[in-house]
Design a protein that fits this description.
2 copies of one chain form a homodimer. The first copy, chain A, is 40% helix and 23% strand. Chain A contains 11 helices and 12 strands. The longest helix of chain A has 16 residues, at 158-173. The first copy, chain A, has 2 domains: 1-101 and 261-346, Isopropylmalate Dehydrogenase (3-Layer(aba) Sandwich); 113-140 and 148-252, Isopropylmalate Dehydrogenase. Chain A is globular. In chain A, the strands form 2 sheets. Chain A has a 10-stranded mixed β-sheet with strand order 2-1-3-12-11-4-5-10-8-9, sandwiched between helices. At the A-B interface, α4, β6, β7, α5 and α6 of A face α4, β6, β7, α5 and α6 of B. β7 of chain A pairs antiparallel with β7 (149-157) of chain B, so a sheet runs across the interface. The complex binds 3-isopropylmalic acid (2 copies). One 3-isopropylmalic acid sits between chains A (85, 89-90, 242, 276) and B (187-188, 218). Chains A, B: Belongs to the isocitrate and isopropylmalate dehydrogenases family. LeuB type 2 subfamily. Chains A, B: InterPro entries: ICDH/IPMDH, IsoCit/isopropylmalate_DH_CS, IsoPropMal-DH-like_dom, LeuB_actb.
Chain lengths: 346, 346
C-alpha cells in the first residue's frame, strides 16, 4: 500500500491556520489506500524565542526523511528581520537544493482583480531558488558608523542557471502555447545577465518548438499590468522572481491565492510547498486568513508526488469555490477549508 | 540677463523625436529675457558604430560646462546589451554623481490606467543613482564554459545612503502628506538592508513631522497595483527604484508620460533630465512616440534650475492636454509637441 510521509512546518502567524486547512483538503483528496503520515516541526518565532534556534541540524536531518514538506509561513515582528528568513526558510531552500521555485499565476473567474478589463492570465514563473543575491555572500565594514560599507554579492553559475532554465523549457514545451520568457537585467548586470542569456539561448536550441522572448525586469513589470496574457512560462533569477511573483499574485486576486513549490527535481531531498504570502501577524487569530493559497500549494505537492488526478481535483474545487464566492459574505479560514474539503471528497 | 546653457543628448530611436518636442516646449516656456544656449552631443548607437566610442573623455569634460543636460533615450538592438547603458547612460549618472534619481508618478484625469477604479495616484520615487548593483563591480570566470561563475556586487555606503535618504526626507517634509516609505529587501539582503534601515531611522529623527513606513520590495509591488494612493514619497535603492518606477509609470498611463531627473543636488555637476522610457526602435520614425514624458522632464529641469513658475506652467499644460486627449484620434509626436508649446506660451 502507498504512503506519503509529510513533514509539516506550520510556522508563524496565520501559517498555523492555513496549514490546518491544507491538511484537511489533502486528507479529503487522497485515495483511501494512501496512508498519510505527518510529522509536525515546531520551527519559527516561538522556537527562536524559547531556544535561540532557527533550524538545528537535528531537525534538518530529520526533515530529510520525508517525501515532501508543507510549510505555512515564517516571520514575526518580534524577531529581527532576516533571522528567520535566512536561518530557517532560505536555509531549507538551500540545504535541500530547491532550485526550481515554481509559482503559477492564474486569474480565476469571479476573482477580484485590480486590473481593468480582467485580462486572461495563466502563466507560471520558474524562479531560480539557490543562487543570485539570495546566497548570503555579503557583509559590512565599520557597521553602524558614517564610514560603513555594506555589500551583497549575487552569485550565478552556469551549472545553476542551466538546470533551472532547462526545467523551464521542459515546462514550456509541455504547455499548449509553448512560450518561454527570460527576465533579467542584462543591460546593467552584464556579467550575470550575459550568463543567463547565453545559457538560455544555448539550451533553447534543444527546444525548437518553444518560442522565446527576453525582457528586462523593469519592462516585465509593465507587461504584468498592461498585457499579462502575453506570458506563458517565465524563467528568472531568485530576486527578480521574488518581486515578479508578488506582483503576479496581486494581479490574479492577491496573495491569498498564490501557491508555490520549492522543488528539487532530482528527488535527492524533499521538495517544499508553501503559500507565497507571509505570516500576516495583523490578521492571525481572526479567522480572516484565506487558506486557498495553501490548498493550491497542496495541489502542487500532490502533482509533484505523482498524484495528478488528486491535484487536478483540488484545483477544480478551488475554481468552483472561487466562482461562487460572495465578497459581501466572507467566510472564515475554517469555513473555506471545509468547503474545499467537501468539494474535493464529494 | 539670464541664460541657460543646455547640453542635449538626443540619443537613439525615438530619443531624437521626443527631444525636439521637449526643446520646443522649453523655448515656449522660458521668459523672453532668458537666453537658451543649446549644444547637441552626438552620442549613442550611431557614434558607437562609427567610432567605437560611447562617451569619450572630451565629451564628458565638455558636458560639465553646462547648467543641465536633456537626454532622449539610449540603446539600439544593433549594439550589444550593456555597451551603451554602461558606457554612456550610467557613465554619465556616475561621473556627474547623480545620486538623486527623481521619478514622480501622477495619474492625470482622463489618462487611461490599467487599474480598475482609477485610484488617486500622486507619489514620487527618490531612487538612489550612484550605488547598489549598478556600480559595475562584478565579473565572470571561465566565461562561456559549463564551469562559468558570474558575480554582481551591490555596493552600499552610509555616505551614499544618507545623502539620498536625507534628500527624500526633505522632499517628504515639503509635501502636504509628509509621508516617506523606505523600500528594500532587508529580510534577505541583510547587510545592505540593515544599513538602509538604520540610516533611514536615524535621519528620520531629524524630521519628526514625517510619517515613515518600511516595505519589502516584493510587497511594494503589490501595493503599487492594489493601493497606490498610500504612497507619498518613496526612497529606495538603484535597482529596486528602476523596477518600481517602470511599474509606477505603467499604472499612471504608461512610460509615455513618465519623467525623470538625475540630480546632483550639490550643483558640482550638471543634472540630467530624461524620460523613463527607452529608445523604442520599433516605433522610431513613425511619429507615434509620445513626447509628453520628455516635456515633463523639461519641467523637472526648469524646476531644478529655479524656474518654478515656468515648470508649473508646463505641468498645467500637460494636464490640460491629457484631459482633452481622445484615444480615437491619436496625434503625432510633433502635433502633441505643438499643442503643448501653444498651451505653454498661450
Ligand atoms: C520571506 C522571504 C525570505 C521570501 C523570499 O524573499 O523568497 C518570500 O518573499 C517569498 O517570496 O517566498
Ligand atoms: C537603460 C537602463 C540602464 C536604465 C536603468 O536601468 O536605470 C533605465 O531602465 C532607466 O530606468 O533609466
Amino acid at each position: 500500500s502507498r504512503s506519503i510521509r509529510l513533514a509539516v512546518i506550520p510556522g508563524d502567524g496565520i501559517g498555523q491556520e492555513v496549514v490546518a486547512q491544507g491538511l484537511k483538503v489533502l486528507s479529503a483528496a487522497l485515495p483511501q489506500d494512501v496512508k498519510l503520515e505527518t510529522q509536525s516541526y515546531d520551527l519559527g518565532a516561538r522556537r527562536w524565542h524559547a531556544t535561540g534556534e532557527t533550524l538545528p541540524d537535528a531537525d534538518l536531518e530529520s526533515l530529510k526523511h520525508h517525501d515532501a514538506i508543507l510549510l505555512g509561513a515564517i516571520g514575526d515582528p518580534s524577531v529581527p528581520s532576516g533571522v528567520l528568513e535566512r536561518g530557517l526558510l532560505l536555509k531549507l531552500r538551500f540545504a535541500f537544493d530547491h532550485y526550481v521555485n515554481l509559482r503559477p499565476s492564474r486569474l480565476f473567474p469571479n476573482t477580484p482583480s485590480p486590473l481593468a478589463g480582467r485580462p486572461d492570465i495563466d502563466f507560471v514563473v520558474v524562479r531560480e531558488g539557490t543562487e543570485g543575491p539570495y546566497v548570503g555572500n555579503g557583509g559590512s565594514l565599520r557597521t553602524g558608523t558614517p564610514a560603513e560599507i555594506a555589500n551583497e554579492v549575487s552569485v550565478n553559475t552556469a551549472y545553476g542557471v542551466e538546470r533551472v532554465v532547462r526545467d523551464a523549457y521542459e515546462r514550456a514545451n509541455a504547455r499548449p502555447r509553448k512560450k518561454l520568457t527570460l527576465v533579467h537585467k542584462n543591460n546593467v548586470l552584464v556579467h550575470a545577465g550575459h550568463l543567463w542569456k547565453n545559457v538560455f539561448d544555448r539550451v533553447g536550441q534543444e527546444y525548437p518548438e518553444v518560442t522565446t522572448d527576453y525582457l528586462h525586469v523593469d519592462a516585465a513589470t509593465i507587461f504584468f499590468v498592461t498585457q499579462p496574457e502575453r506570458f506563458d512560462v517565465i524563467v528568472t533569477d531568485n530576486l527578480f522572481g521574488d518581486i515578479l511573483t508578488d506582483l503576479a499574485a496581486a494581479v490574479t486576486g492577491g496573495i491569498g491565492l498564490a501557491a508555490s513549490g520549492n522543488i528539487n527535481p532530482s528527488g535527492a531531498f524533499p521538495s517544499m510547498f508553501e503559500p507565497v504570502h507571509g505570516s500576516a501577524p495583523d490578521i492571525a487569530g481572526t479567522g480572516k486568513a484565506d487558506p486557498t493559497a495553501t490548498v493550491l500549494s497542496v495541489a502542487l505537492l500532490l502533482s509533484h508526488l505523482g498524484y495528478r488526478d488528486e491535484a487536478a481535483r483540488i484545483e477544480a474545487a478551488v475554481a468552483e469555490d472561487l466562482a461562487e464566492r460572495d465578497a459581501a459574505a466572507p467566510r472564515t479560514t475554517d469555513e473555506i477549508g471545509d468547503a474545499l474539503a467537501a468539494r474535493v471528497s464529494g
